[in-house]
Task: structure prediction
Amino acid sequence: MIPVLLIAVPLVAGLLAFLMKDGGARGLALFASLLTLVVAIWSVAEPNGSKLLEINTDWISGAINSRFALSMDGLAKILCLLTAISFPVIFISTWGEQYRKAKNFFGLMLLSQAGMLGVFLAADALLFYFFWEIALVPVYFLASQWGGERRIQATFKFFVYTFFGSLMMLIAIIYIAQHNHDHSFSLGAFYSARGTIKGSEQTWLFWLMFLAFAIKMPIFPFHTWQPDTYEQAPAAVTMVLSGVMVKMGIYGLIRWLAPVLNLGTYIWGDTVSALCITGMIYASLIALRQDDLKRLVAYSSIAHMGLMCLAVFATTESGMQGVMIQIFNHGINIIGLWVIVYLIEKRFHTRKISELGGMAEKSPALTAMLVIVALANIALPLTNGFVGEFLMFTGVYGSKATTYNVVFTVTAALTIILAAVYMLNMVQKVCYGGANKLTEQSLVLKPNEKMVLVVIVILILLVGVYPDPLLQLTRSASESILAKMNFNP
Amino acid sequence: MANYIYLVPLFPLIGFLINGLLRKSLSKSLSGIIGSGTVLASFIVSLLIFFQVKEPDFQPQTVFLFHFLRVGHFNIPFSFLVDPLSSLFLLIITGVGFLIHLYSTAYMHDEDGPAFAKYFCYLNLFVFSMLLLVLGSNFVILFIGWEGVGLCSYLLIGYWFKNIEYASAAKKAFVMNRIGDVGFLIAIFALIARFDSASFDAVFGQASKASTGFLTMVTLLLLIGAMGKSAQIPLYTWLPDAMAGPTPVSALIHAATMVTAGIYMIARSHILYDLAPVSQTVVAIVGLTTAIFAATIAIKQNDIKKVLAYSTVSQLGYMFLGLGVGAYTGAVFHVMTHAFFKALLFLGAGSVIHAMGGEQDIRKMGALKKHLPITHITFLLACLAIAGIPPFSGFFSKDEILSAAYEKNPVYYVIGVAGAMMTAFYMFRLYATTFRGSFRGTADQQHHLHESPAAMTFPLVVLAILAVIGGFVGIPEVFAKDAHLLGKFLDPVLSTAKTSHEVMPASTEWMLMLVSAGLALLMVILAWTRFSRKPELNEASGFGKVLANKWYVDELYDAIVVKPLNAFADFLNRVVEKGVIDGIVNGVGRLVQYGSRQLRYLQSGLVGGYVLLMVVGIILLFVVQLFLRK
Result:
């Protein structure tokens, strides 16, 4: 019931939007996204295992044994909550933005939301793949139609890259479906496939699936689509991409790969962990040298996603719970950063750090927000970022899935320092010093912008000080996935 | 009363929120009252708690507030620990902190309303973080406060953010602290992995079960954290730069909060250090090296705040020495007396700078004793205290550390005394150059010389009294039996720590005391007479120049860390990312495009060609079929 509503609300509203006038579509989009948020909050309030959180009906039967099955556990809940919070935040913060053919823009935005919610809810592999693509296509059009100068080039790369990954995943999904007991695409059947698919098969199947997720997150060296796409896509789409869409990668890994191909995950754990850490340090160092705010945030995000992926492979309770709460936190924080970058660009017509400076003097409110979000991004205690990172690092250190746990922790921890360097460098160059010609103008936040930023700051502090409710929300999901990942070698 | 412990950090938190959220609408006097009043309220609660803790039948109490990180098999609650050690730190933080707040209301009066409120907002947050740090009942809460004070120092050092150098100093402080913090964090991860808990009870209770190797690793990692926060070699360079902030902030950072955190943390974890002798030696050597090294730099500095900053680094070195030789009580004792006289020195320096219209160079001062009588006399008392002249407070605490060092290794003692001599020398160089001799500033400055208002002199007087008598809570055994009140108070927490006085013969102790005090006194007289008459006005030359330039350590770090890192990052950004990785990706893309272009020629539109290809294909299929059959 609830899962269907979650997908149906944005889907129906999205289709309606195409038929409406531009102004009406904007209002409808906001209304639908708020309605989705209400449903998402309802789902969080509903206890795990409740009948309302499941649906399972016929879809494609016969030769292909796939069912329309959706279900919601703590992991799905926290992701749906993130998705549902993100869209109103995005719509409200970019409320004044004028789009050509706005009805199409908002229609596509809502369709992508429906697709992403579907990805998080699907309990059937084919359905999961279906939603995975449904989420991608609207985003492709959004970026290529409404993006910056080099949008075609950037989005083409993005599309080809992710589509290639998706195809690999499809092959793996079909193979797994054919090799489990009841030749079914259902999540349950996939989980039972651990028994029937041999280690030798898992070693190559793992990469087929992991490639799709690694490109999406992205994991080094499959990340080069991201900075270009973030730079070229319109602000609202960049927020969708980085706040929610990249979480599809880490979600897929947690739900559909690690517990399904547990042997493959174990075998390749060290390799992938090494890639993650290389990427974390690599992206952090590159972030040090960026002059474009959007590219800086993009590289910082690559570093953070690397840590999440690393923590999944640690196969520990704290690591897994850390990832689950960090998925939420990362989404909130990065959208906060994008909102601020968007406001700066809108006001000062530049994203170049070297052209800004001294913003603190005339725009104190925005500066305060930027500092808080930047601090959350570098995981300062009592912000949400700390909770996630602390748990993930604890998990990586305590990992029994690898013998290199200490080496991994220590090298990955270097990014804690590097993050402080690049973030505070940015804050200093953008906000401090004397005001220049550009920043002499003050940036006064409009009520809608202020509201969004205040909501983000409240979420940052609330989760940072009292994360317990969210941790308890995902606890059972984390335990059950870990139980499936574990085996006796 | 201990159950109300949450009030202690709550008050400054409320002050932070009010001053932060309403900074545009509050009047300056109101923000000042809120800022200082909340800390005073905390001080009163701390005092009540202190008296409860002092009762002989008091048992350490853990006060649970709420669940913080509850994951699977481990649980890190947000809870506070009330015991003698934390209650003593509460008094220092809120007491000295309150005086600094009070002083600031006058010192910062030139700032406009919102900036004034922002200042108190940060100051309150600083006190709040430091309180969390000492109250936490596990390493994670301690760490929250730990990074919190790092943040606040960042905000306050960069308070005058329009000056980009100040903003850089702020960033430097944060990053240097972060380097240490990573060491601390890894220690916490290791403890959690080993004991499934980060709480002091659990960790210290099970510590003896762990291997010495493990404990050595953990304690060394904790030491890295402490080196960052308490400005020890090699992570000390942020502290002298931290004077970019308003002067009362320096007082807060150097005396009541922040830099003492490392000492607190090691004293708190002394059970681990007692089991890891190698780490203890490292702590002692780091402390001793820092004490000497910073003292040499302080001798040649001409900025009043820089001299004090390096003296802090040096004094912190003594505290580390104390920790390293097992004189935990002595180290904590020195934290306390140092809080009194260093806060006094910085606030006194602020009063001088205030009177001199912002001038900080002591070469342009002189003869200030006439114009600033209260500042002068209190400053002098503080100098006597830090120089270790009996019976001022610094003498007792430093003596306790030095005699414990002697017992461990006489070489420690000798080097320590050499450092103490330098301390006496540079402090009285500072004192004589600033307050004695003749005035060397401009006529305009001379005209404006004035004693500071009561809100500034009152804290000076209170701190001066404490700096003079503060040592009497730790009178050594040789003077009187059972007179070491502080030692007795802290005994339940630091009990395993050795107290030197039980083993050493009284005669040796008398001798050590006479030597160190006598030599210090000699240096005081030497510096006083020399610099009153002939202050050092010229730029230093020769070896003095090396000292004046702080041994060129900043330049060294720049050359071996900052520049190579940036160059490497540049290389990754320009060559690897754009050339190699993206090059491969685009190359694959181009290859596909090229391939498809070639294939396109097959679609020539000539029916004959198609038929030919079809026939070839059919033949091929047959051939393949034939071969596969076999």
